[in-house]
Amino acid sequence: PATINEGEINAIGMEMLESAPVLVAQIIAAATDAYEDFDPKEEGATSPLDTIMDMPLGLQLAFLQEIMPLTFNAGGGVKKMLALALKASQGASQSGS
After folding, report:
1. Greatest CA span in the chain, whole angstroms?
2. What local confidence, expressed as pLDDT, does residue 97 receive?
3. What's the pTM value of the predicted model, to 2 decimals?
4. Torsion angles phi and psi, residue 12, rounded to 5
5. What's the distance, CA 9 to chain centroid?
6. pLDDT value at 18 more than 70
7. Contact at 8 Å (CB) between 91 and 26?
8. What is the DSSP string of 57-77?
9. How many helices (H) and strands (E) does the chain have?
10. Of 16, 32, 18, 17, the residue nearest 64 (C-alpha)
């Protein structure tokens, strides 16, 4: 903590806020198997991620409220949810590069 300055903390916070919509959409997409029938080569195909991100925020939050208890009560519990979030965040950072 002594080596981390307030500017670095603020930068991390802003980065998290900026990536939050993509992370939320990726969690929803993964939980609903949204990419199962998606063919990116299909003409005019809309990415499930884009479709989810276009949904009203309230609807996205409702999906998360349903997904979280199912995830936490499933075999892996919190560990599974953290692994999903990590995987989604890695995908977001790769797609943003």
Report:
1. 54
2. 47
3. 0.57
4. -65, -45
5. 21
6. yes
7. yes
8. HHHHHHHHHHHHHHHHHSTTH
9. 4, 0
10. 32
Retrieve residue 80's tokens.
Answer: 């599974």
Half-sphere exposure of residue 27: CA atoms within 13 angstroms, side-chain side? 25
Tokens (6 digits) for 29? 């997409």
CA distances to 16, 27, 44, 66, 77 from 73, in Å? 26, 16, 38, 11, 6
Look up residue 75 and give its two tokens. Answer: 């075999």
E-strand ranges in 6-93 read none
- Encoded amino acid at 59, one letter: L
The model's pLDDT over 46-79, given as tens digits with 9 standing for 90+, comes to: 899 999 999 998 888 888 888 877 765 655 555 6
Q: Which of 58, 2, 1, 54 is nearest to 29 (CA)?
A: 54
d(CA 25, CA 88): 9
